[in-house]
Amino acid sequence: MPKYVRAATDADLPAMQAIIAQGKHLLAVDGIPQWQGAYPLAADIQADIDAHRAWLLIVDGQVAGTAALLTTPDPNYANIYQGSWADTNDDRYASIHRIAIAGGYHGQHLADFYFSNLLTLSYQQGIHQVRIDTHAANQRMQHIITKAGFTYRGIVYMADDPNDQRNAYQLVL
């Protein structure tokens, strides 16, 4: 089963949208309100592609996962509550967003491989800390995040919305 990570192209948008739709459905089944509105929109995913921050997990030639690796500051991470970001010598960080694995690939531990590759991409760009967030009810993602080596750091709010709280994690490479 050859697997690798590559940059997404415009032609990948339909596959990426399908994976995001599967992720939305899984979250809904689990009763998690994350991604239950319009977000992420096709325009969000297209913006990731256009900015060269969309990365695909490829397994046996098929798109098996989608994620965005941002290397610019995330406004949602400017303020953290009930905790703090770890002090580092460099304030630059990458953040992983809109990550999902296609339904047919669940249970194969591909998220471990995917995260490892995203961390490598960050490191290759000279960025030695990575941040990610997820909904407090999303136990599945919390397990994957901590298994990848991230440490819980506190709470952040999406767009300063007090009703859109996320658990925030950080990994210093």
From TrEMBL:
Residue ranges of domain N-acetyltransferase in the record: 3-173
Pfam families on file: Acetyltransf_1
Keyword Transferase on entry: yes
The keyword Transcription regulation is assigned to this record: no
Chain segments annotated as transmembrane: none
Top-level class of the enzyme under EC nomenclature: transferase
InterPro entries assigned: Acyl_CoA_acyltransferase, Bact_Acetyltransf, GNAT_dom
EC number(s) per entry: 2.3.-.-
GO molecular function annotations of the record: acyltransferase activity
Cited Gene3D superfamilies: 3.40.630.30
Keywords, in A-Z order: Acyltransferase, Transferase
Domain of life: Bacteria
Identification of the protein by name: GNAT family N-acetyltransferase
Annotated source species: Lactiplantibacillus daowaiensis
